[in-house]
Amino acid sequence: MKFGLIVVVLAFLSAVAAQALLSDPGYVAISIRGYTIESSVPVLLGGVVALVFALWAAKQIWQAPRRLGAAYGRGRAERAGKKLTAGMIEVAEGNFARGEKLLARAAGSSTSPLFNYLQAARAAHLQGHDERRDEWLKLAYAETPEATNAVLLTQAEFQLDRGQYEHALATLRRIEENSRDHSYANALLGRLYFRLEDWDSLRELLPRLGKHGRVNAETVEKWTVRAHAEALAGAPDGDALIARWNAVPRKYKNDERLLEPYYTALIRVGMHDKAEKELVAALKARWRGPLVRLYGMVEGMDATKQLKQAETWLQKHAEDPDLLLAAARLCLRNELWGKARSYLESVITLRPTPEAYQVYGRLLNQLGEGDAAADAYRDGLNMVADGGKLTAIPHLDAD
């Protein structure tokens, strides 16, 4: 309605102006450096209008190629976008080969082909074509060098998925050279070190993983416990063991998952007195079955004193199978065969295990009861076949 009103007003003004000019066309004279131009007002106005129109037309002609190029570019980008969308739909629907072709075709006309190449690499990976996948990744890198980390991370993910751990490690270490604190690369490195059981590298990486928060706390805890437990179990001597225990974060110092391998390692490297002292203190602070069991494997300087300590605990924990087994082992060390037998039979009654049967069988052999020993061994082996496992038994020689 507003436009119609403007048209009416302009038409009215034009009619009035035309009437005025027709009744008196007027006279215009322009003198420039001795030259005089004479004209009526309508002719002058017509000339001005013609000049403005000519300038406008010249401008349009001048800008036409650029506008045509821009329009063509928009059309090309629109077609590339449609191909990209179609390719991603095909990949999402499981048509990987067709999706890869569409994505590759769209890359040539795309203004930013990086995404096309990365998605084409994914499609090739899902088809199991690793060489073609890597070719697409090379094109992605060549097209956008500033996206090096993005391309390498994508490649590392594919390699991890394929189980190509050594290749993935090389790829991730290239990222580490460029960006040492790249949080996602560190998260992938953590996964890789855990799968490769490279516990030393994982321990070095753990502080950075906790800082960035790209790995959930539960997984970081799992990796921390496993890495330090393996380090303790692999300590070659007492000095190395103490150094590795000192490297355990304080929050895990009282964690049973690390205390057990620590005390086991103390026994293994011959630091029995230290193991005995620390086990007594740990059990006084908190009663824990696996640690009680280890107490029976310690060969302290005074076996009689150890047995008295165990029997003192039995006053409060008379039916604890772990304590009974520990007491039985200490009785064997003190050559108290009858008492050891009583404790072992109590253990087997409360909680039979392959370990208890093995200790019991060797004791029976020691006592000359070969048939009963064979039955004990057989019962223990049957439990092993059902998923149990045997452990070393100190204080008795194998028959």
CATH topology of the domain at 315-399: Serine Threonine Protein Phosphatase 5, Tetratricopeptide repeat
The CATH superfamily of the domain at 315-399 is identified as Tetratricopeptide repeat domain
Low-confidence stretches: 69-73, 392-399
Q: Identify the CATH architecture of the domain at 315-399.
A: Alpha Horseshoe
- The N- and C-terminal alpha carbons lie at a distance of 112 Å
Structural class: mainly alpha
Task: Supply the number of helical segments.
Answer: 19
Strand percentage, roughly?
A: under 5%
- Provide the helix percentage: over 70%
CATH class of the domain at 315-399: Mainly Alpha
Please compute the radius of gyration using only Cα atoms.
43 Å
Global morphology: rod-shaped
Largest sheet: 2 strands, antiparallel
Count of extended strands: 2
Query: For the largest beta sheet, what order do the strands appear in spatially?
Result: 1-2
Order of helices and strands: HEEHHHHHHHHHHHHHHHHHH
Mean pLDDT: 82
In words, what does this structure look like?
The chain is mainly α and 399 residues long. It has a domain of 85 residues: Serine Threonine Protein Phosphatase 5, Tetratricopeptide repeat, CATH 1.25.40. Helix content is 75%, strand content 3%. The protein contains 19 helices and two strands. It has a two-stranded antiparallel sheet with strand order 1-2. β1 and β2 form a beta hairpin. It is rod-shaped and about 145 Å long. It starts with a helix and ends in a 14-residue tail after the last helix. 32% of the residues are buried. The C terminus is likely disordered.
